[in-house]
Structure formats: C-alpha cells, structure tokens
Fold each of these.
Amino acid sequence: RADYDLTGQLVWPGAVLMNTYLSEHPETVKGHSLIELGSGIGITGILCSRFCKEVVLTDHNDEVLEIIKKNIEMQSCSGNADAVLTAEKLEWGNHDHLSNIIEKHPVGFDLILGADI
C-alpha cells in the first residue's frame, strides 16, 4: 500500500529553522528529556539526542514511524547520541496513544518540541 500523504516524509522549513537554532544554542535542551510532536522523519529529535538525556519522537503515520525507527537505528550505530531515543505513535486526540506514552514515561518530559505542527 502506498502512502500518498507525504506530510511526515519531508523536512519542512520550520524544522530547518529549529535545527539551526538548536545547533547554535544546544544549552536550550542540554540534559533535558523531551518529546517531539509530529516528528516526521525525526531529524530534529535526532539532533536533540546529541544534547538531551531522553528524546521521544512521535508521529501518527505508521509508515513515517517506520522511517523514524530506521533513522534512530542508524543514529544509534553512529555513536553520536547521548540520549535514550525512541519512537511512539501519537495521533492527536487519541487517548490510547497518549496513555501508552504516559505509561512508558510516567515522570513526563522537561520540554515539548514541535516545528511545523
């Protein structure tokens, strides 16, 4: 089945701006745990994993989540990430998805990140 909704499969201008800012100001996220909403392919969250202690990337699209997981795997192999980096399904307004994330991360997150959402 082809997914013709490419929304989560592109790097949007807001993500480029966010990544530039975070690269220039890593202290913004350093040592924090964060959840990224609408992660798409995961580029922003993966960048944050270089500075954070934990990063959870989320998206509602199953095909995009598979891309995120492959990107996390490649990042893990590179040895550049300091953070625990995971991906979770999150469709906004879906109580089950939210409950699953809360169950896995009961202390919550220091920061909520979103670019082009």
Amino acid sequence: MADPELDKIRQQRLAQLQAQHGGGDPNQAKAQEERMQAMEEAKHSILAQALSQDARARLNIIKLSKPEKAAMVENMICRMAQMGQVNTKISEKELIQLLESLNQQMPRSNSTVKFDRRRAALDSDDDDL
C-alpha cells in the first residue's frame, strides 16, 4: 500500500537532510530549494484534495494568525491523507474538531503582560504644560 506521493516526499526529505549535512555547494543549494518547492506543491495538492473549500479558507485564516499551528495542522492532515485515514473531504466542522484536539494536546504558553505604572507617573512629556 505504498503511496507514490508519500515516497516522493520521503525521498525529497532524505535528499534535503543529506544536503544539509553534506556541504555548501551552490548547485546543491539550488537543488535543495527546488526540492523544497516541490514538497510545498505536493503538500498543497494533498490539502486541496483532502479539505473542503470552507475548511481550506479557515486553515488559511489560521495560517495568517498562527503560522506554526497552521503548519502543524497541515502536516497532520497530509499524514492522515497519506495513511488513508481521510476517506472524504474534511469539512470545516471536522477541521474545527481537529484544531480543538490539537489545542488540548499542546501546552498553553503562559504569556503575561506586566504594566509598570510608576514609570508613567514620571513621564517627562507632562513637563511642557
């Protein structure tokens, strides 16, 4: 049950890793860039086949706000499609369920904003009045 697209992506990834550890030949860098573009095109074609239009639009909106999360979801959907877990196109509701499950698996980053109000009282802009 070998998928030709999966084999192609694996070969490209192997060549990419070999090129990274190999050397700095300009021809290799150009070839690596071409392989990366081919991988992106393959990923986009898989996503176009696996996602409905609404789900694709939602994923693009997520890509604008959180590119790393969108990349993770894209890779997850590509793997699911290559393993044959996607029988029909993924609808927007199913994509939302995937995103919710991904959010539960990922730890939240506790970013806080701290205001130091004492500095605002010492602002030199008020001296001009």
Amino acid sequence: MLARLFSALCLCAGIHASEKPNIVIFLVDDLGIGDIGAFGNDTLRTPHVDSICENGVKLDHDLAAASLCTPSRTALMTSRYAIRSGMTSVI
C-alpha cells in the first residue's frame, strides 16, 4: 500500500524510479489547512514547513481516517480502516 503511495508521489514530483525520494509525512492533531504559513497564514510563523513547501511538492488535498488522533494514526500505520483494527471509540 505504501509503495503505491510513494510511486504516486514520485510521479507527481517528476522523480524517476531509480532515484530515492525524500518523503515526509506529517500527522498532526487539530491542524487546519490555514494554520501553516505556506497556505496563507500570516499570524503563526512556520518557516521550516514553509521551506519544505517551497522547495518540494505541496499537496493541498488532505484526508484523515477519523477526527480523533488514535484512529487516524492506526489507519496510517496499518493501511487499514481503524474500525478493522479495533481502534474506535464507543460513545
């Protein structure tokens, strides 16, 4: 699953299969699209993240498996829906 994701990112970035890309995945709790300077925020300073966006590929369509951190982290680490791993909350 992750190999397909990396291949898709390489295609988007124009990187050949023989090169080894540097891929950074941010999993952040409670972060909105407008909270980073590269996406238009001029209140909070995020120079390092802005530098990554300026010098690399900036993806602007982000999805989360759930609105809470545990199911989202589980989905990222296992490539499965969190409910299939038993990582959901019962209300």
